[in-house]
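Aggregate trends can hide what the representation actually does to any particular protein. This step matters because it turns folding into a mapping between discrete strings. For completeness, the protein is quoted in full, as a sequence line and a line of structure tokens:
=====
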Amino acid sequence: MQAEVEALLALQEDDLGIRDLEKRRSALDPRLGDLERQRQHAADAIARAQTALESEERRKRDLEIRVAEHRTLQERNVHQLDQVRRMREATAAVSQVEQARRILATEESDLQAMSRRIQELRQGIDAQRQALAQIELEQAPARAAVEAERAEIDEQLKAAMAKRNEKAARVSRPLLAKYDRIRARRKGEPAVFPLRGPSCGSCDTAIPMHRRNQMIARGDVEICEACGALLYATN
């Protein structure tokens, strides 16, 4: 077996090891994703409650302005009633005072109810924030374990890539480019196979005799026309 074929097989072994490390690293994402979804669910609930609180507070400020205006108007109506001397004018003034009083009473009742809702929302937000803090506290060990595992895999990947690059330098550029292209197309699966008798070691398609003879005689690396894998002869 030619030295370049040996170098190519060694490179493929490293690439398969790197693929396994990358799979292990990718497998950490769902674990972190589950943790983050739990945390985000609690955080979203707080955001919704905060939005509702801000909306209620705006409505309360608007209502407080109207209540203040109606109180001023009521005081003015009462003052005008004290100045009335004629019965007809007094009747109209009393009606106006009563109408303003009912409106003011309704608005003050609404204001009290709104204040209670705001207080309940604030208490709810406080409770939700405590729940979020508890979730984050409980998740901290799991997150730390995942991050530690990811850091370890990253170190292994760094070392494996350095080793891989050294081996890649031992393969001719044309063959390396062909190998990398085929490996990418095969989604990281093995790209180099030995002949299995007269057939492709990947898909069992028969290889013409003259091509097999060239591979055996010269150590050529050929492409299977059926599956696109790289082929070499073992003898």
